[in-house]
Amino acid sequence: MANEWGAFARVTTNPVLAMAVNRQEGADVGKVWHFTSQRWEAYDSGNYGHYVIGQTQLGTSGVWMADRPAPIPSTLTVDVVAMEQTSGSPGEGTDTPFDVRRFGGQIASFSATVNESGIT
C-alpha cells in the first residue's frame, strides 16, 4: 500500500472502515471526504456510504491500514475516524467508531530561542 494514513488496531472479523474529516483548509474545515466524487462536502447522512472506505488488515494481525486518496495532499491536516462495520453494509447508525487519528499537516516555519530560562 502507498500513501497510508496509518495503522489502527482492532481485533475483529468485521470489516473496518475509515472516514476523513478536513481539519485545515479554510472553507472546507469540518467537511468530510466523499470518496466517490473525490471532493470535500458538508456531512449529509444520505451520503454516508460514500464517506467511508474499507481498510486493509495486515494478515490476521488486527492492524488495519487506510489509504489516503491521491487528491488529498499529505500535507493537509486530516482526522481519520476508524469504525467497525457491524452490519452487512456501512450504516450511519450501525458502524461503531473506535479510534480517530490526525494525519498530515506541516509547519511552514518555526523559530525558538533556547537559553537558561527555557525555550521562548
**Count the helices. How many?**
1
Order of helices and strands: EEEEHEEEEEEE
Helical content, roughly?
A: under 10%
Question: How does the major sheet shape up?
Answer: 4 strands, antiparallel
Alpha-beta classification: mainly beta
Work out the radius of gyration: 17 Å
Beta fraction: 35-45%
Q: How many strand elements?
A: 11
Q: Going across the biggest sheet, name each strand in turn.
A: 5-2-8-9
Spatial gap, N to C terminus: 41 Å
User: Roughly what is the average pLDDT, rounded to an integer?
Assistant: 85
How many separate domains? 1
> Could you say which overall geometry the principal axes of the C-alpha atoms support?
globular
Catalogue the unreliable spans: 107-111
Describe this protein's structure.
The protein has 120 residues and is mostly beta strands. The protein has one domain. It is built from 1 helix and 11 strands; from the N terminus they run ββββαβββββββ. The strands form 4 sheets. The chain has a 4-stranded antiparallel beta sheet. It has a 3-stranded antiparallel beta sheet with strand order 1-7-6, with no helix packed on it. Strand 6 and strand 7 form a beta hairpin. The radius of gyration is 17 Å and the shape is globular.
SSE layout and pairings?
Blueprint: E1 4-9, E2 16-22, E3 32-34, E4 39-41, H1 48-51, E5 52-54, E6 56-57, E7 63-67, E8 78-84, E9 96-103, E10 114-115, E11 118-119
Antiparallel strand pairs: 1-7, 2-5, 2-8, 3-4, 6-7, 8-9, 10-11
